[in-house]
Amino acid sequence: MATDWLSEAEQHSWRNFIMSVHDLMTVLEADLAPYGLTMGDYEVLVWLSEAEQSRMRMCDLAGALQLSPSGLTRRLDGMVRNGWVERASCASDRRVMWAHLTPAGLDKMNEVAPIHVGSVRRHVLDPLGPVGVQQLGDVFGRIGDRLHAAQPA
Amino acid sequence: MATDWLSEAEQHSWRNFIMSVHDLMTVLEADLAPYGLTMGDYEVLVWLSEAEQSRMRMCDLAGALQLSPSGLTRRLDGMVRNGWVERASCASDRRVMWAHLTPAGLDKMNEVAPIHVGSVRRHVLDPLGPVGVQQLGDVFGRIGDRLHAAQPA
DNA sequence: GCGTCTTTCTTGCGGGTGCAACTAACTGTA
DNA sequence: TACAGTTAGTTGCACCCGCAAGAAAGACGC
Asked: pLDDT tens digits, residue range B59-100?
């Protein structure tokens, strides 16, 4: 049976998406780089700073960050070296490790959050305007819903 | 001066985007994996098969694929090992290397193109519908335009 | 209590990528 | 021709990540 190839419009939209996402991520990383962290590091700071008692279990954090267990271990290694996060074993379940935001980590968060928010605003939200932002959320909401419906985590 | 933090709606759209893009790329890679190639490999096949005489200069290909020179060298290494691409030096400018699609590479392209197109249709285009696809193209067209306006390549 | 299964986290390994340095080769100027 | 500047591609190095394997510890059934 013949393949249903992409129309001109579909091809254009898809290529626009693939290429712009790449460029966008590169720029967002570059805006954060002078402060010594990556977007991955920043996401860790965000989740921990919003968590109760500024700490999360490794496995929960891995789920939130969409990282494999080993990926999170290595990412935290770097952040521990930088003094932003501390590991602490859990008394009630000695399998789990707490990833705990340190005061230095909170300072870093407060330092870079305005930078990153400004970066997202400048490169994404401003060019789109309120209507475009709404469309962005709708589009990826639908894509995400479909993905999770097909592959229930 | 106070930071202009994200509104609820902005935060929601942005998170939807970040997380769904991650999941989407993972699924697209997974759909291609059984055929022995990555999305990166697939992009190489697409560009070469559309190129005149099925070949491109390394530097042009790197630009098209948004890859660094070294990144392209390594990616082609793998594809040469698989017999999909051949390197050929250029007679008129001995600095340049041609990346040339082989018959086996074209076969592979014809084999996997329907798979990948079906994957994109299933995970992206179908859930969005014509209007959504148009919005996707618009949104990333605007983001891409702004990026290139600010940082002329 | 004991053995088994499951969960949590870490480590070894391989793959992919960018930057910097390097070689080779083309270009322009005198 | 000779030299300086530019361009094309590769390699060394470092980093990030996932999968598979393993160690440690909790949960369940008997």
From this structure: 999 999 999 999 999 999 999 999 999 999 999 999 999 999
Q: Which residue of A has its CA nearest to B10?
A: A133
B24 CA – D17 C1', rounded, Å:
17
Pair of tokens at residue B120: 């994109």
- Residue B112: exposed, middle, or buried by beta-carbon count in 10 A (0-12, 13-18, 19+)? buried
pLDDT of the residue at B152: 54
Q: What burial class does residue A147 get, using C-beta atoms within 10 Å of its C-beta: 0-12 exposed, 13-18 middle, 19+ buried?
A: buried
Mutation site, B5, B139, B142, B151, interface A, largest A CB count within 10 A: B139
State the pLDDT confidence band at B51, using cuts at 50, 70 and 90. Answer: very high
Type and span of the H or E element at A85: strand A85-89
Q: Where are the alpha helices (DSSP H) in chain B?
A: 8-32, 39-50, 58-65, 69-81, 103-120, 126-150
Q: Is A71 on the interface with B (CB under 8 A)?
A: no
Helical (H) or strand (E) element with A12: helix A8-32
Q: CB atoms < 10 A from the CB of A101, how many?
A: 24
CA of A150 to C1' of D7 (A): 49
Q: Which residues of A53-62 are buried (b: 16+ CB within 10 A; e: fewer)?
A: ebbbbbeebb
